[in-house]
Amino acid sequence: MDVGDGELLRLIGEGNRRAFDVLYARHAPWLVLRLRRRCRDPELVRELLQETFLTVWRAAATYRGDGAVVGWLWAVAVRRLIDARRRALARPQSVGSPGEEILAWSPSAEEEVMARAYDADLERALHRLAPELRAVLQATVLDGLSVREAAVLLGLPEGTVKTRAMRARRELREALS
Asked: For the RNA polymerase sigma-70 region domain, which residue ranges apply (predicted)?
């Protein structure tokens, strides 16, 4: 299939398995490399890749086409990585020698509730941002791209990326204070 990513997502949304295979072959290699830069556990990287493309299969019909597909794929993968890290932090883990049962720190119920409340406030504040500011924040903060990488991904000059990132942070600070 020699079609663009947006068209592939439209076809995937209609249940086209061939389009899914093409999108996977096109994007899985770089996605694995990017995930490996943020996670050293190869098994977790494989799980994250699988979860990302499972989400793509299920949610392709919801893709609005208001940005590059690669950015959308990376955002899905990063959310999966964040979820995996949160799950790992929430599980108590044994430390020390096998006979010595000492539990590592895990968040209290109050901390979990406060984190969810903060996350909800942050999510609401993010959704109030203009789409162009949200896209820059997603690329530079959530995706961990440099200003240069974000500029290439978003098709903007580097100075514009910096300015929008500064504006977005200022608006978030105001919304969260």
From this structure: 23-88
E strand or H helix at 103 = strand 102-103
**HSE-CB of 146 using CA atoms within 13 angstroms:** 2
**Low-confidence stretches of the chain (pLDDT beneath 50):** 101-105, 108, 110-111, 113-114
Buried b (16+ CB within 10 A) or exposed e, 125-153: bbeebeeebbbbbbbbebbebebeebbeb
C-alpha 135/C-alpha 143 separation (Å) is: 10
| pTM of the model as a whole | 0.54
Q: What is the pLDDT of residues 3-14, one digit of tens each?
A: 899 999 999 999
Enclosing H/E stretch for 122 = helix 109-128
Backbone torsions φ then ψ of 65, nearest 5 degrees: 75, 20
What domains are there in the chain, each with its CATH number? 1-91 (1.10.1740.10), 105-177 (1.10.10.10)
Q: Please tell me the distance from the alpha carbon of residue 92 to that of residue 103, in angstroms, as a whole number.
A: 6
